[in-house]
Design goal:
By secondary structure, the chain is mostly helical. Among the domains are: 507-597, Serine Threonine Protein Phosphatase 5, Tetratricopeptide repeat (Alpha Horseshoe), CATH 1.25.40; 618-699 and 709-755, no CATH class. 70% of the residues lie in helices and 0% in strands. It is built from 33 helices and no strands. The longest helix is centred in the N-terminal third of the chain and has 59 residues, at 3-61. The chain is extended and about 100 Å long. The N and C termini lie far apart (135 Å). Mean pLDDT is 81; it is low at 1-16, 29-34, 421-460, 704-740 and 752-757.
Length: 757
């Protein structure tokens, strides 16, 4: 070894020793980096959780709890926490914290079963964790969601009695109070919420408890105490949603106490606050409600319309539309506008809590609107036809032309049809439609020379070529021009006809429809709206107009019913109306009902029918169905009768009817054969039906092929409507075969039914 090598060896030795110490030096750095990675992931998970809570509170404040925006934040929290547990294992000192964030997020996502399962894992894996009291709190909240109140209370009181953290004890009382609040037990809610406020808690949380305490008083109508609690909320740094809801209800509380100035002051201030920008439609709708209570209806209508026109997909817009519809319905009695704005409630916000009510209101009021429109239109027609001869003539002419148009279709042109020349006579009169607009007047006005010029004989005199033009044939170009002109005129007439449908009813029919509509209006208020006052008014008006009509007894009876209802009791008047019914309409069902109610009719006990008598009634029902043309139901009923008892003749008769229907009505030979076999085999005591069945099932004799055969084994000719069934021969007995009587009667009934229009 050279000197140089000897000198280098100690250096290498020192270098190698440094490399051996390098992992020991890097270990703290690696641990620090790993810890930073954990804290970074955990920090992002916690931040996502806080963002989810903010979105959730915001949605609850706007009344849009079902919005999906908050869900992605909680799902992100869950993903990041599971990632931490996978990387650092579930035995690391951070795993219990990550698992609790998973439980919290699953609870807010509504995944209660998963959250409960993970809490059970938490209790098993981390029994000594300092998060056990909070785990008990969340477990109790999940049990409440499962409606296990008693079990949940055990966990809540365990937290209240054992937790060292005052925030947790307060939270347990708050959850108990919130559960009582949601179940409308407000006295119990107030008790628990006041206990929650006695603990040392954070300001933001205290603001939330104060808000629900104020709400409990507010819902009970204790507005003065509610105002005291709502006013305290602002002092404790509330979240934006809690601040908004407390201020809004503070203004509403002032409004209910008649302190409109204070209410407007709060609401106007909220309008200018940027943090309440997302709540502006609801704030404006609340201002409109305050105007309503003050009696400033015009201002209320204006602000409601502003909200409805500008806001989209917001509960405040739905609230404004609903309030506006109610105003038009109950205050202004404008049914058309009420229907319009009830329809806009769902368009403004489909998840609004009163959408179903608005939908039903729109449906009912649309029916009312249709009835009133029909009454106005028919009343207009009756008045014009009765008192305006020109209008009547115009209507009759239009109906006549319409009938020709229906008959000849496109060949009918402007009052002419094939084989008829055009009638150029112009009838004076009014239009057919309820606009009341008369045709334009062509009389010359002062200063108008058009009419005078048109009467100048020299200027309007046709030339000799024009007078003789009909003698020469039209050129091809003129033919095309004429055809095109006729086509355009026909299309114009068809378009005009579609735009202005002709009234085809005659005066008696219009008057009858008008009477029906007026009665239906009264019935609408009685049965659908349950507005007895309006119903009584319209029934009285109907009876004044139609003293003796087919609907008069029903109207009298309905009016007497109203006068016996609580709040409308007029017994003497009800009795007088019933007396009128008994006197004028003694045969009506209403008179019978009155006599029965007054004890004037002795109820006869219905005799108990024997099973065979019930079978007869059921057979008659089947017959009615058959001759009404309802073959399927008749067949089913006949089969039911046939299966009751093989010793009753009515059952054999029903089985014969089944076979008949399969043979002739349904043309189902296989089923008919089976039915006749059943008739032959199951009802041997009734020989006449057995003979019929045997004859149907016997093949035709080969030596007499020319004789028509009625058996189903061969070719079965179906009787024509005019055929008769021959009676049995003399050697079969002196009396006529009962089965042939039935057959002949059925054919006769079928023929008579076929001749009916």
């Amino acid at each position: 070894m050279t000197d140089g090598m000897m000198r280098m060896y100690p250096r290498k030795k020192a270098l190698f020793s440094r490399f051996r110490r390098l992992p020991l030096l890097l270990l703290p750095l690696m641990l620090a980096l790993g810890s930073c990675a954990y804290y970074n992931t955990m920090f992002n998970a916690k931040r996502s959780y806080r963002q989810g809570l903010e979105e959730l509170r915001k949605a609850e404040g706007q009344g849009m709890r079902t919005t999906q925006s908050y869900k992605r934040y909680f799902e992100t929290t869950i993903d990041k926490c599971w990632k931490l547990i996978e990387i650092y294992s579930d035995k690391s000192k951070w795993a219990d914290d990550a698992l609790m964030y998973i439980v919290r997020s699953e609870f807010h996502l509504g995944k209660f079963a998963q959250a409960k399962q993970h809490l059970d894992q938490f209790f098993r894996k981390y029994p000594k964790s300092n998060l056990i009291p909070e785990a008990n709190l969340w477990y109790a909240k999940i049990l409440l969601k499962e409606n296990k109140e008693e079990e949940a209370n055990q966990y809540f009181f365990r937290v209240i009695n054992t937790a060292r953290d005052s925030q947790l004890r307060s939270a347990a009382n708050f959850e108990l109070g919130l559960y009582a609040y949601e179940n409308e037990d407000y006295s119990r809610a107030i008790d628990f919420l006041e206990k929650a406020l006695k603990e040392k808690i954070e300001d933001e949380y205290r603001a939330q408890v104060l808000f629900y305490l104020g709400q409990s008083y507010f819902i009970q109508g204790n507005y003065r105490e509610a105002i005291e609690q709502f006013k305290k909320v602002e002092k404790f740094s509330p979240t934006p949603d809690i601040e908004y809801r407390s201020k809004l209800n503070l203004a509403i509380s002032y409004r209910y106490l008649g302190k409109y100035k204070e209410a407007h002051k709060i609401l106007r201030k909220m309008l200018t606050a940027p943090r309440f920008r997302d709540y502006l439609p609801t704030i404006k709708a609340t201002i409109g409600e305050t105007y309503e209570m003050e009696g400033r209806l015009d201002e209320a209508v204006d602000i409601y319309k502003e909200v409805v026109s500008l806001a989209r997909n917001h509960p405040g817009a739905a609230q404004a539309a609903f309030n506006l519809a109610k105003l038009y319905e109950t205050t202004f009695h404008n049914v058309d506008s009420a229907v319009t704005y009830y329809g806009k409630v769902e368009l403004a916000y489909g998840k609004y809590d009163s959408v179903e009510i608005a939908r039903e209101k729109q449906k009912f009021l649309s029916e009312l609107k249709e009835l009133r429109d029909k009454i106005r239109y028919d009343a207009y027609l009756v008045d014009r036809i009765t008192h305006d001869p020109a209008f009547r003539d115009s209507l009759l002419q239009a109906q006549y032309e319409d009938s020709l148009r229906q008959l000849y279709g496109a060949d009918y042109a402007g009052g002419t049809y094939p084989g008829e020349t055009a009638d150029t006579t112009v009838f004076p009169g009014d239009t057919l439609f309820p606009t009341g607009m008369a045709p334009s007047d062509t009389t010359a006005q002062p200063g108008d020379t058009t009419a005078a010029d048109s009467l100048n004989p020299e200027e309007n005199k046709p030339s000799e070529e024009e007078l003789l033009s009909f003698r020469r044939p039209l050129t091809e170009e003129e033919e095309k021009e004429k055809a095109e002109k006729e086509k355009k005129e026909r299309e114009a007439r068809e378009a005009a006809q579609q735009q202005k449908p002709v009234e085809r009813r005659k005066l008696p029919q219009i008057e009858f429809d008008l009477m029906n509509s007026r009665y239906q209006l009264a019935e609408y208020f009685l049965l659908k709206m349950e507005n007895l006052d309006s119903a009584a008014y319209h029934y009285r008006k109907f009876l004044e107009t139609y003293e003796d009509s087919v609907l008069s007894p029903k109207a009298l009876y309905s009016l007497s019913y109203i006068y016996r209802q609580p709040g409308f009791e007029q017994p003497a008047r009800a009795d007088s109306l019933e007396d009128i019914i008994l006197e004028r309409y003694p045969e009506s069902p209403f008179a019978e009902a009155i006599r029965r109610r007054r004890g004037m009719i002795v109820e006869e006990k219905t005799p108990t029918l024997t099973p065979e008598e019930r079978a007869h009634q059921l057979f008659l029902k089947a017959e009615s169905l058959y001759f009404a043309g309802n073959i399927p139901r008749a067949l089913k009923t006949y089969k039911t009768v046939a299966g009751l008892d093989t010793t009753w003749e009515i059952c054999a008769k029903a089985q014969y009817a089944v076979a008949w229907i399969y043979e002739f009505d349904l043309a189902n030979t296989d089923s008919a054969v089976a039915a006749y076999e059943r008739l032959r085999d199951r009802y041997p005591a009734f020989r006449e039906y057995v003979r019929i069945a045997q004859r149907k099932l016997t093949p035709p004799a080969p030596e007499t092929p020319s004789v028509p055969d009625t058996s189903l084994a061969g070719t079965t000719p179906q009787p024509s409507p005019g055929d008769k069934v021959s009676p049995p021969s003399a050697d079969e007995g002196e009396h006529r075969d009962t089965a042939f009587d039935i057959l002949e009667e059925k054919i006769r009934w079928r023929n008579s039914r076929g001749r009916q229009p």
